[in-house]
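Q&A log
Question type: sequence-to-structure
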Amino acid sequence: MVIGIIGIVYIFLILAAYGYGVKTLLFKKNFSKSSYKLALILFWGLVVVTTLASFASLFIRINWEFQLFLLSGAILIILLIVKKPITFQNNIFKKFTLSQKIGALFLVGCLILTLIQVVQEPTNPDTGIYHAQTIHWIESFPVVPGLANLHERLGYNSSWLILNAVFSFSFLGIQSFHLVSGFLFLAMVLSFYQGVHNLLAKKFLLSNFIRLGFFLAAFFFLFDQVSSPGTDMPATLFIWFVLAESISLLENKTDLLDSREPLILSLICVFILTVKLSTVPILLLPLLWIIYKLRKKSFNQIGQFVLLSFVIMIPYIVRNFVLTGYPVFPGFPFDLFHFDWALPLDRVKEERVVIHWFAMLSRVPLEDFLSMSLKDQTIKWFANLIPRYKAILITIPVGVVFNLFLCVFKKWRAFIRENVGLILLLLVFITGDLFWFLSAPSIRFGFGFLLGSVFLVLFPIVTFLANQLEKFQGMAVWFILIAFVGLALINFRTAIHYKDFSSVILFPKDYPTWSSSPCEFNNFHLLCQANYNSCWYSPFPCAISGNMHIEMRGSDYRDGFRQVP
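Response status: OK
Response body:
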């Protein structure tokens, strides 16, 4: 745990340096004080570091060489750009009321339990199947042509796994650390807690209620993922962050034409796509911003957005081409360039089908699933969901209808007119819900859009009532405190089962090691998994199964792999 905390502090310092430095160089003007929130600085640093690493991974392994470059750059930024101590807008620890003191006490407890969870053994099954092996490949070689031929999921190109390789510190020879998800979780809950803190001071703004919802949801739905380098949790947290910040911009009447905050949030939306491809509907937010600027004939920043988006996307698309032979994978079954390492088209098409089947009804044989109508698939899928997931899905349409019903009241219509931007946000998130359902409707894949939609239909009503009814304000504060107590108790129950806590006092737990056995390919052999399609981090390289139709393109792994007849 001690080493884990040191690693998290190091990640914080590197991201803060790059975030502040690059933001200062690129966006010197037109910032409100809110734009210097620590969370926004960290996320911009995360985008910059990940993009740099993505470019570097095209030519070199992401190991000690890149870490040395990264550290040197951070030192230069501090020496050349940071002329005076950096201060960030952060009012959490000023002038506490009694309720805020109680809230802060439980926050500290939740953060401590989070640190305990961060250093536990990863439990995400996808980490065993391909996350850990992908990170090992990134640490060991530049991007490998046709790597997806060994296993399709090694072609699931996510910039999040590159960032995990950056901060795995495998070159130390101790282990490949998995701390980045935990760092992100801690940063996000602290950012969301600002809304909780404001609510406890009876500042009943929608953005504060939204942040309260995301704070609680992060612990209830994502807490078990903080020790795994998976892509679901970061994609969800990024989407929530963008939504909360977007609502803040609307509340503050931010000038969307000249302010830089919408530009930065739009670029973060582009980055989210490189973390998880299924988040593509989030790009509707920057599209709406661009349309608004074009309608107002304000063309500044659009060119900057296009250029920087291009910079973010170039390494992502190039890596896709090298790993799979396609610009987007999975989901683009057109072989444009006929690279010799490209996955066969039939495997690309099959992967799309398998993803949808696995996310929807994995316990039903694939052949039976394909023979079912969409209606039958949907009915069986919904019936298999646990009650709280059913409640999430039902709340969205019911909440929309109820909001429409409230329009019979004059005060509610006035409230909606004052917050008309919320309608556009809700439309974006409902589009995300539909895309999620049609592509891969596993609930854990859709938390970002689903809970965003739930809170967008519920919390405007809560905000309206809180500002109309004085008695409701006191009830809201008590609800928050009770929710915090319940949250702390639930997380404590999760944490106290760690009977071997002494084993993580110094170091985080390593990836598990599962059994493997030799398997044959066309002109080489590897070790293959022997349990539940999982290789984890070691042995390396490791495949799911042998295939005599796969051969090495040269004498070295970095030459890549291809399929032969």
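Response note: The longest helix spans residues 443-468.
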